[in-house]
Design goal:
about 240 residues; mainly beta; seven-stranded parallel sheet; 21 strands; about 0% helix
């Protein structure tokens, strides 16, 4: 019920791997199951996949309400994709913010190679011109309501290329700037029906009365912003 700092109770930071098939943070194979919620995942590097390497039939990643930021290292060789889904495995990513990872231009943040991938109501926004997603021999792909810097292989009509307008990305604050962010009240919950709060312990789907809903009252990304709520902003509820 308490935390050393608001919204950052659960952190995975600064792990490294030089294995060509490795991963800086998490490797799942041979039917392994990885379920990560309300976490900050930062500062990882690997010669393979900087953050997640998911491979083989039956292996699965479920990532929800989490931040994946500042991973990769441009000073080291062989910097891989932040997230790789391979060889019949599967991944579900929902209400997450993936941003400011080091990825080469004309590369991708997420690679789906011969696997199953679902991404819902998330932000994928790198500083380079890297694509959000590259698909190859896809077994299945379901995508809805993303805000990205470069679509890549995404053809979802409710995904847009736009600046998500974080509060202060230069200082690792990836909360939404409620006054100008297009992620506020952007989507509905038709694909993701969850009772999981964001990392600030705030409920999803708060209908900001200062913003016109595009598809619904749910904010895109890891943060559900209450920044325009003059009643509950200071958490005296």
């Amino acid at each position: 019920n308490s935390c050393w700092t608001k919204g950052r109770c659960n952190q995975f930071i600064e792990n490294n791997s030089v294995n060509i098939n490795g991963s800086g943070a998490f490797r799942v194979e041979s039917g392994g199951q990885l379920d990560i919620k309300r976490s900050h995942i930062e500062g990882h590097y690997a010669f393979g996949s900087a953050v997640f390497n998911i491979s083989n039939n039956g292996s699965n990643l479920n990532l929800e309400s989490s931040y994946v930021t500042g991973n990769g290292d441009d000073t080291k060789p062989g910097n891989g994709y932040p997230i790789g889904i391979y060889s019949g495995s599967s991944a579900r990513i929902a209400y997450s913010t993936i941003a400011d990872n080091y990825v080469l231009n004309n590369s991708a943040t997420i690679v789906n190679n011969s696997s199953h991938l679902a991404i819902y109501s998330s932000i994928i926004h790198e500083q380079s011109n890297t694509m959000a997603l590259v698909n190859s021999n896809v077994l299945s792909s379901e995508i809805d309501c993303l805000i990205v810097n470069n679509r890549g292989y995404i053809n979802d009509p409710r995904t847009i290329e736009a600046d998500p307008e974080f509060v202060d990305r230069a200082n690792n604050n990836y909360h939404l700037n409620a006054a100008i962010s297009p992620a506020v009240d952007y989507c509905d919950n038709s694909y993701v029906q969850t009772s999981l709060q964001d990392t600030d312990r705030e409920d999803r789907g708060w209908d900001d009365y200062t913003v016109n809903n595009l598809y619904g009252p749910y904010d895109v990304g890891a943060d559900e912003s209450y920044g325009n709520d003059v009643i509950f902003e200071d958490e005296f509820e």
